[in-house]
Design a protein that fits this description.
Length: 449
Amino acid sequence: MDGFQLPERLTPRLPNPRGGSSRRSQIVISVVACLVSVAAAFAIGQPVVMVAIGLLPLLIVYAFHNPFVLCLLFICFSFFRIHEAFMMLNPLHIPQMLAVGTLIVLGTQVLFKRMQIAWTPELKLFAIFFGMITFGCTVASGRDVAFGYWIDTFSKIAIMVFAIASLARRPKDFALASRAFVISGMLIAAIAIYNHAHGLEEVEGTRVTVGRSTGSALGDPNDLSLVLLFPLSFAVSLVVTRATPFFGRVLGLAGIVTIAIAILDTQSRGGLLGMVAVFGVFGTRLIKSKALLITIGVVGILALFAVAGISGRSSGGAAEAGAVDESAEGRLRAWGAAWRMALARPLTGVGLNCYISNYYYYQDWWEGFAKAVHSTWFAALAESGFPGFAVFITLIVNTFRSSLRSVKLLSPAAMGALYEPASFGMAQAVLAGMAGFVVCGSFLTQAFT
């Protein structure tokens, strides 16, 4: 967050050059258009789709005056896969519509010089990494697979990274984002808890997922736990950050309970370690005694593993004999295959999203099917080579250091009378979220997602 300017209330909202009467006229026209479209929707017989179309004029006007809200909605839907958890939303293609809308609004703002694109050291590193991955696609072992993923996912991520960094500018943006992340996490957690209570969408008989039967990205319990760690960090931040409003604390407490239960239901060992990392970041700021903090951490890990019922898992549970269980052995084999891919193609790796298609040729024990690499770090190494891996690690380290600086700069002690709880809470949550990602991501494939 180099380049982050300390408050003068960060960045003031620019005035509407067209005046209030023009805005009122736009709203009136939009409302009339909405009502006409809604009436047509029921006449045609497709109310869900047509109502959405009917609301577009009003939403467009709102988006141009509040571009960050549009961007925030895109983050919530694309990261938390809300449209996959609630299947009635899937036909609306909400993430695609929000992405296009965000880019149009952002492009308009930049074109008329109402804002500038953010360009921090971390974003420079990301741009370099994006360029290396793009070049790697041209020489990938499976160019069709690599470019398919680049077009469908990775290029959109790259564009939205800059949009998100450019549009989040004010303390109230941070406050809104924190609450939106917690609420989104609670929605996904509630679905997971419901599925677990009714024996739905489970793997190995005990491990809960969301949308597995429909091919959702949350259909793997490990990936689900990693996604839920992010809102967990914001929920904890809302509770422990000084001067957080009462509603924020209540929301944070409800989020901690709901999300923690859902992560426990996934029975993901990486997820549980990620939880310890998230709480540990806040613990280091609240508990001065290192010995007490370590003791609480060890007891917490043992308690979480016991409550989650890890020993009862079909894979990686107590039923598997030996020093290395089947789950861990599978990961070691996957990591070994990734290492051999990097040695075979050290400069560019096998290419974006090409690990699975290359697994057969680089494994040392074929089990009849290809498996995921189950490590963010080995995924980056195998698919981008040693140079790409070095830039990826540098990006993570720099982002972590930037988060640490933000926490120090925005703390009550440093800010004094200018202290903003929303900004400081966001800084703490991002730092804890990064810690959870680093720990949990070491056992999950999330390098390019």
